Every structure is written in C-alpha cells, then in structure tokens.
Amino acid sequence: MLSIEILPGLSSCKDYNNSILFCYKMTQDHIILEKIRPLVISKNYRIKIHAIRHMIEEGFSEGNIIEAIENGKILENYTDEKRCLIVGSFYFTETTTSPLHVICDYTNSEIIDIITAYIPQKPWWISPNRRGKIK
Whole-angstrom distance between the N-terminal and C-terminal Cα of the chain? Predict the structure, then answer.
C-alpha cells in the first residue's frame, strides 16, 4: 500500500504507477488554469463579440481558441478583475503553428467568458510573450 504525505510548501501530488510520488507547488496561475480548462473543455464558456470580430478578421476559429487555452499558460493575471491573458498556440496548417492570446474572465465559477482573442502583432507585441512599446 502506498502512503501519501503532503510535504510542507507543496500543494499537489501526483501518483505515478503506485510507486513514484511527484509533488509540486501550485502557483496562483496554475490554480486559475485548473479552474478555466475543465470549464472550457466541457463547453461551459461564452465567446464575446470582440473575440468573434478578431476570429473573422484574423482567420482563426473557436476550436483554435480552445486549443490555445488547453496548451497555453498565463502571461498576465489581472486578479482584481478576475481576468487573465493566456498565451497559447494553434495549428494554422498541418505544419505551421500560430501564437494566440486569449483573455478569459473567471468571475463566474460555472462559466468562463472569453472576452477577446487575437494573434499578437507588432507594434503591440515584440514576441508572443513580450509587450512592445507604442510611441
């Protein structure tokens, strides 16, 4: 029988094949993503008109947004507003990926609002993970 002991400072442990215990400290960003992803995967989300406008103008789909949320990470967390900017990617073609930014509102514990989504571009973004400077 395997016994599990949560070590001080560690908030989550995973059991692999009943033999190896892997523990890690969950950051605030991990906790938020652990709330957002299951809701999105189970289709408990609403896509706001601003995101739809970008989808049409930039040529990505609802499925691409979901893909980016599933494989992404939180780039910026706006805790006062209970919103976050997730940077992920999606397959634009079979061999080409594109970065995608998705702003999610997690105020409601039962549904996620996808406020906007867009492909990061210059001059607003130097890279998908780094803001640019607007003169």
Answer: 63
What pLDDT does residue 133 have?
Answer: 77
Model confidence over 40-57: pLDDT tens digits?
999 999 999 999 999 999
Q: What is the three-class DSSP state of 50?
A: helix
| pLDDT for the residue 5 | 44
Residue 129 near residue 75, CB atoms below 8 Å: yes
Q: Strands of 73-78's sheet, edge to edge? A: 45-47, 112-118, 97-105, 83-91, 73-78
- Tell me whether strands 112-118 and 45-47 are parallel, antiparallel or unpaired: parallel
Residue 82 phi/psi, 5° resolution?
Answer: 55, 50
- Alpha-carbon distance of 60 to 105, in angstroms, equals 20
Question: Which has the closest alpha carbon to 101: 126, 132, 83, 128?
Answer: 128
Q: How far apart are CA 91 and CA 81, in angstroms?
A: 30
Q: Which positions of the chain have pLDDT values less than 50? A: 1-10
**How far, in Å, CA of 60 to CA of 55, rounded?**
5
